[in-house]
Amino acid sequence: MASGERPLIGIVDDVGGLVDLVAYESHEGYAGARQAVSGMAPAEVIALVKDANLRGRGGAGFPTGLKWSFVPQGEASDGGLKYLVCNGDEMEPGTFKDRYLLEHNPHLLVEGMIIGAYAIGAAQGYVFLRGEYHEPYRQLQKAIDDAKARGYLGQNIFGSGFDFDLRIHRSAGRYICGEETALLNALEGKRAQPRTKPPFPPASGAWGRPTIVNNVETFCNVPGILRQGADWYQGLGLGDDAGTKLYGVSGRVNKPGLWELPIGTTIREIIDVHAGGMQDGYKLRGLLPGGASTDFLVEQHFDLAMDYGTIQAAGSRMGTGTMILMDDSICPVDMCRNLEHFFAQESCGFCTPCREGLPWVEQLLTDIEEGRGQPGDLELLERNAQFIGGVTNTFCLHAPGAIEPLASALKYFREDFEEHIRIGECPYRRGG
Amino acid sequence: MSEPALIPVLSDEEVREIEEECAHLPDRKSAAIDAMMIVQRHRGWVSDESLGAIAHVLGMSVENLDSIATFYNLIFRKPVGRHVVMVCDSVSCYVMGADALRKRIEAHLGIGMGQTTADGRFTLLPIVCLGACDKAPTMMIGDELIENVDAEQLDGIFGRFE
After folding, report:
1. Is A251 close to B92, i.e. CB distance below 8 A?
2. What's the pLDDT tens digit per position in A65-119?
3. What ipTM score was computed for the predicted complex, to two decimals?
4. Domain count, chain A
């Protein structure tokens, strides 16, 4: 570990939660927001976040400061409303990091959003929260109410003349709401279909106004950067990327869970040291490194660093950083069927390759899994993967993301697919 | 007299909560999802009558509102039991045995997915990842998240919900 510092949840782990405003403030809480709002120009805040090299923690890894700089400022702004939106939808299967932050350190998000709002000049913010997240909602709403009562939200924050109000929108549930333009349609009370881009949200977002959308964990990184600076933040990471990352492991390990570690920690360290290794009797065959929409990685990749560039070079994506393990008791064909069922169900139905292609893929996988596979089915799956996975063939990235685990499974676990078709049943179900 | 006749379908409390949402949004239609969720919190589901009343309050067509209602997983357009049971069927729970658990729950309640028990106590639905994957398999009963669900403990789990 570079420094052992854990600015997101270190104190939470030590004292068992920071949901109380007084407790949060006793650990330098709101010092970063106070410093930004009362002592810095918005452009200085954006420059600092850029210098820190903070990248979006929702999955895409876009540089946060750069995104903020796309919002029209000064002369370029028409002086009207701007919005700051937090994506707290967390519906990527296998992902459970934002829930932890919301339940245990909600003021960190509120503080990060105050800083972001000041940087882009937004007077109104929304947290777009999963409808099923009841406890996160209770904790965040309490944090917002307490911050408001203390004068940290609302009019004239810290006596600076800056106004920022924050409200929670509780979603009615659909995976596509995680796509930022679909999220904005949902925020506006509409069907959550993605929008045509351009224009991108920093130019025209919620209600047609300049809007920035960032993930929960992204905002939570901002207060520390304000307090301790860009060099400190850069020093937290092990490789090219900066800061810490919430990494998670689910599956047949001894200690499934979530840890804040230097970004760039290796996959093997996360699984063997932090997650306690595989349970007795189970062998690790592969994993999805950052949620359901990321390509499988296998044994040859386990010593790689979990950062944006390294995982991308290995043909996958770090995504949300919460990995799902496939042990040797799990049939790769059936696991892909489970994944494609999810993506087919959650397609918004707007464009044909996604609406028609994903159910077709799910049906082919179901047939193969249940012993009805035919010679040629794998070639058909591959052709579908090519068409649906081509990023210019679909309206948004839902279908290309859906295809990532399947395309990689066809590469790494091809023998399993072929055996299903050859013997006319699932070898993992034989005799049981 | 024809216009206001729809509003009494909603209670004063529901209308007050919907108006509170509208007051914080640039236009009334933007409160469509919030309004349906408010009514559902009070009544368990969104009936045709409720839908018509909400559309009227927000100044939008019933057809438009229904197209929004049917898009979202958590807006129920059919009656549900007193407790909605949502069992995660996404990949982390799948790896930890969700398929077998689902069958045990269906047998325990004597209903399949999408059905309601004869006594109106439970409605059973599949749900996507509940964001507690390190404690898989998971499900929700009402607002309560239940982690590390043990198929041997279903009596005790469901027994807490009258």
Report:
1. yes
2. 999 999 999 888 898 999 999 999 999 999 999 999 999 999 999 999 999 999 9
3. 0.95
4. 3
